[in-house]
Amino acid sequence: MLKVWPVHPENELKRMRGKLLPGRFIFVLCISSFLAGSLFTGRTWTAHPSPDTDGQMPTARDCDHKRKLIEEESGDMAAEVTKTHQAIKSLDRTMSKLETDLAVARAGQLDGRASEHSASSSNLSLAKAFVVVGINTAFSSKRRRDSLRRTWLPRGEKLKKLEKEKGVVVRFVIGHTATPGGALDRAIDAEDARHHDFLRLDHVEGYHRLSSKTRLYFSTAASIWDADFYVKVDDDVHLNLGMLVSTLAMHRSKPRIYIGCMKSGPVLSLKDEKYHEPEFWKFGEEGNKYFRHATGQLYAISKDLASYISTNSPILHRYANEDVSVGAWFIGLEIEHVDERSMCCGTPPDCAAKAEAGNVCVASFDWSCSGVCKSVERMEKIHGLCGEGDGALWDFHL
Predict the structure, then answer these.
(1) Model confidence, pTM
(2) DSSP helix/strand/coil, 120
């Protein structure tokens, strides 16, 4: 007889809860969950493909195409950078021109204009010239000035004609005494009334003030004449104006140029030496030399450099020696230094031999005297042997 046991579901459930699930069952359950998750993720990625691949993995062709696009973009960027650099250079040239014009305008407001131009001091319309030659002179140098007037410096109507027809302006440059209006100042006024060949500066004359005088000369000259070049020469130097003009004309297209006989002499630290430099320590160790600069007897600068001096005059440092000071103002600028040896020929027989060979010198002097030794007595003889002839300047055309 079959015996049927009563079923008690509550008791059976309690018994199952009390037992632990087998480890294999748990492992299988984990694997199944992972596979299900991967399948769901794959379907989601397929349902939302990348717009670049249309639901497919990127191919080698796609990568090559992207590489070409990047290279093209890089090329375009390089071209834009080049255009930007060119625009900056163009802007820099424009700014340089504006700065030059502004410098001239500012210079026109400086004190120290020549007395003959004082009535038009507010007029910034400058007289045109090719070169302005400033002859540095002193109150005690009347005989020197007369020796130049008898030799290479035109006088009277010829001086006016030289300025009008050739654009060559020549003036003796001088300031005033510590007490303006005295006998020395009146003597210069009388000499100027006779010859009309002075440029008067608002400057107190003195040997140790040459750097200040030169700085003011360039500023004042630039405020009166719009010239291509400005020249400084001493009153004991023999000068051939025609050769000077033709030499400068070869550099007319260069905006920033400094022309002269370049030298680099020793920095003299002893106080009893003639060219003692009180600030010798700025030039390094004892025994060092100066940087290259034009010798002070004669040199020329272009219009942009004269405007630079005029604009920056208050902060241009003055050393004991004038030629060193001028060289210092230019040493850190983007300009061309031209070592023109015809500007520093020796006196006869040097300049005479060169003249006979057809190589007429621009200027002649003696290094031992920093000018022509005994220039008053010797200038006429030197001019006869080394002069270029009266027609050289008048026959020259720019």
Answers:
(1) 0.69
(2) helix
